[in-house]
Amino acid sequence: MTGNSKFRALAAMIVAAAATTASAQVTDITSMTAQLNGQLNSLAQLAGMIAFLAGFIFGILGLLKLRANAQNPNDPSNKLSTAFMLIFVGAAMIAVPTVMGIGVQTLFGDGGGTSSLGGDGGGFIQIK
Question: I need a labelling partner for 121 at 20 to 30 A (CA). Which of 3, 17, 56, 114 fits?
């Protein structure tokens, strides 16, 4: 194959791929907002999962820092305040999804359940 025929084959594949994705385009504002709402709910659930996992990691790091302080209390890199700060930040990050779900229900009432992190108003319950 020459360089020109390779370019034409690549262009044909791109056009074919674009033709198959064109069916996913929206035709009116209602379907566009529905699609955007679905994507934002998924993004909020992802943010909740990331906060939960990061909180778990911070909690484990805080416990490890406590253990290091117990083994060698004279080491300046193993301060007790750092360990408690890591544990507190971990607990706060684990609580973020639930607090956000409660906050949405408090501000927007019963109809705000669709805007919470869990999508059902209950906040983040478990990782699936």
Answer: 56
pLDDT tens digit at each of 128 positions of the chain: 566 777 787 777 777 766 555 456 767 788 878 777 777 777 878 888 899 999 999 999 999 999 999 999 888 888 899 999 999 999 999 988 788 777 666 766 665 444 445 555 555 554 44
- The domains of the chain are located at 3-115
Mention every residue, 6+ apart, whose C-beta is less than 8 A from residue 23. Answer: none
d(CA 65, CA 106) in angstroms, rounded, equals: 37
Q: In this structure, are residues 95 and 88 in contact, taking their beta carbons and an 8 Å threshold?
A: no
